[in-house]
Amino acid sequence: MRILPQRYHPTADDLTGLVSHPSDFTRNYCIVCQSRFRLFTNAGKSVPECEFQDEITSSGRRPYSKCVWCRSVERHRFLWTHLSTQILKEKEQIRLLHFAPLPGIQDRLVDLPYVDYVGVDLTKQNVDANCDIANLPFGDESFDVVICSHVLEHVPEDVKEMSELYRTLKQGGLH
Predict the structure, then answer these.
(1) What is the pLDDT of residues 9-60, one digit of tens each?
(2) What is the gyration radius of the CA atoms in the chain, in angstroms?
(3) Which of 25, 38, 70, 173 could form a disulfide with 169 if both were Cys (CB 3.0 to 4.6 A apart)?
């Protein structure tokens, strides 16, 4: 039996709008944590009325899109699919830098013996280094792969931060 870690416990808001589905546990498979569920929870924040309202939900939340175990949403599962099928499939030794690590993906990458994983964040506790993306403590061309998803829209000088990312990326590396 797996015990759900505290950081993955769904909040009351996550459970809003859940409805039962037939007990087909293959319906919702999370490729990140490799778990099957009868349903996923809703994700996203409520948004005011907009032209795309019918494409999301009446509340602005995406129905059945968040894994109840690892809390990954569509973009996280897409990222893991790309990583596992394109970047990590050769199982060659790589050094990987991950900004604002996504817990499920971080857990999977740390477990891979051929990945030298470095997780960084400005404030999170469960990372290898707390640092500002604009002033990284790593040498030039230190990493084969850099993952920086949903970070640059939150920084004041994104061009400076992108330059810093490229500085740490090996020539021919992936970002």
Answers:
(1) 445 444 443 333 444 445 678 889 988 887 787 777 655 555 555 554 455 6
(2) 18
(3) 173
* Cα–Cα separations (whole angstroms), residue 133 to 35, 58, 76, 145: 33, 37, 21, 15
Return the number of other C-beta atoms located less than 10 Å from residue 6's C-beta.
Answer: 6
User: What does the pLDDT look like over 89-125, one tens digit per residue?
Assistant: 888 899 999 999 988 899 999 999 999 999 999 999 8
Tell the burial category of 87 from Cβ atoms under 10 Å away from its Cβ (0-12, 13-18, 19+).
Answer: middle
For the chain, give the number of residues. 175
* 69 residue type, one letter: W
Give 175's contacts (C-beta < 8 A, 6+ positions apart). 145, 146, 148, 165, 166, 169
User: Three-state DSSP class for 34?
Assistant: coil
